[in-house]
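Quick one: structure tokens for this chain, please?
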Amino acid sequence: AFGWRAAFLFCGVPGLVVAFLVMLINDPPHGVNDEPHTAAEAAAAGARTHRGDYKLIFTNAYFVLGLAGITANCFCLGALADWMPTFLVRYRDMELQHAGFVIGVAT
């Protein structure tokens, strides 16, 4: 019944739900990720390794969820850039070169 407009319902409604849920996430306490400021604090923190740094980053839920969101955004933008010129040519009677230019500027 909605044709291609059903995609807005299929993607938009879950997007609004996720946006609402994101508003419920609490921010981490101020300074929780700050580096030690003195030599004594640095010594107490121990030696740092690259493996430990990666473990620290990828066990941070905020980072992992943010990375997943950016990845999904890039995936969708890539799909749009790939599909939209064809849509503009077929349904909006644009020439392929003009449609490609419009999408190239938009993305």
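The chain has a mean pLDDT of 86.
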